[in-house]
Amino acid sequence: MNDGWHGHTPYPLREYALIADGERGALIDPGGAVVWMCAPRWHSDAVFSALIGGSGGFEVCPENPWRLAGGEYVDGALIRVSRWTLNDGTVECRDALAVPADPHRAVLLRRIRAVDGPALVRVRLSARAAFGARPMTALHRDRGGWHGRIGPLRLSLWGLTDAAYDEAEATLTARLPLTAGDEHDLVLEIADGTAGRNGNNHQPAALQAARLWRQTEERWAAAVPDCSDLTASRDARQAYAVLTGLTAGGGAMVAAATTSLPERAGSSRAYDYRYAWIRDQCYAGSAVAAHGPHALLDDAVRFVTARVLEDGPVLRPAYRVDGRPVPGERTLTLAGYPGASDRVGNRAGHQFQLDTFGEVLELLAAAARRDRLDADGVRAAQVAVSALEANWQRPDTGIWELRPAWWTHSRLAAVSGLRAAARSIADPQSAYAWSALADSILQETGRTCLHRSGRWQRSREDPRVDASLLRPLSNGSWPVSDPTLAATRSAVERELSQDGFVYRYDGTGQDDGEGAFLLCGFFMSAACLAEGRPVAAARWFERTRSAYGPPGLFAEEYDVRQRQLRGNLPQAFVHALLLENAVRLTAAGQEL
Fold it and tell me: What are phi and psi of 160, to 5 degrees?
């Protein structure tokens, strides 16, 4: 078992910040260390894995340990500025992954600045391939930089010529003395064998960094729209940045940047989310469509359409960002983040989840309403309808990826998707047929899954309520006069909420220690708004969006008692639903 990168001490999840370029992401701790990054792509092995107990990190911080850490994001960008206050001054480190991104090459930019006093800054680099198993080798200085290999990858670092290399520890270390106003640039490149060498790498580091920073800032400024007209405008704008940073060039959006971060302490429930879930992608695309036409909507439609047309009724719930299947689970030999296991791969990639087809239709209908659906998208809708027609009575693993059952949410999602597609995509003949199929599914679901109290229950066999049921009832395709909306929403509030936060299906998390599910808090907000209760919707929205740490990133779950994030970080669908609810609340006239 590995004891981590030179005794690295983990922080609570709420303290970590993300930088990302669409093809990969990196987590930075308050101490200035990049402790997680997979390269060259999201699904690749980590080259910095200290976050989960592996070896490998890239640290930039003041030498003086008597310091106060803080920081912020550049508005509308995943450019992170870490800041340390010392007794005699302030030091900053500006971090970004350079964009436009190359899927075969990661370029990490770090700009160190002594703001208003002298500082001695420590730089420490130990890149290790295969989750820490393969250290840097053949490291040497040449043309103003350090060059070497980490497993099958090549590494280059510019801007650190005066450094010492400890071959036994496979670590490069330097101390940079800065006076007030000084800036110092570092550029780290990690690439696979198919990436061509950067033709400008012979330039001095300062000139190369200046060009890369300028391109990166310009790309972020162009990618993230103005959200000043929205409720919670700053959070909505950051949601756009997070979703953009998690979306690869081929259009696929990973569910999160990390793997094996715990849903609860001591639990085996820690999974790998570095893959593109079709449902999550549909949530994100639909959220963006609610605001207006945007590249993220086109990305979602492009990736989802391609997968549906390729796989049809055997559509997988999740894929790698290159469209290939998700590998099965395997366990690493690392310590893991405290309280968690250390696994990669995900068995959900081979499940059958019926609701995915309904969400696909919701996304394609939303794109059609924005005039962003082409002929391939229409064909994908037809394929999704055929898949629903053939499979809607088949047990599935559902939104929460549990044992196969006749999950109510899956059927209601199918009904909602069919109705949306019938209105926005289909020709008159198809619209009639799709609506009739929706009615048939709803009739049978009502016969077997409508609780005697008038609300929907989890499944044929499970009479409990489930917060996921609020999604299809409140996303605009369900009649607002349907009494099951109010009855189900009331039951979720009564049985599945605590202190203003919403759980998935067991109420207080007592059964297995699960945290409140932030996605479900935004489902509740949308349900209240659909009921015509905007004040209640705003209250749930505000409470749910309070569940983040200093960097403003949401994880999957929130420990209500300990006020801590749980699960992988950042969770894309939570940011997507924040954006969608901000748009809906704005339309309802609620300014928060």
Answer: -140, 55
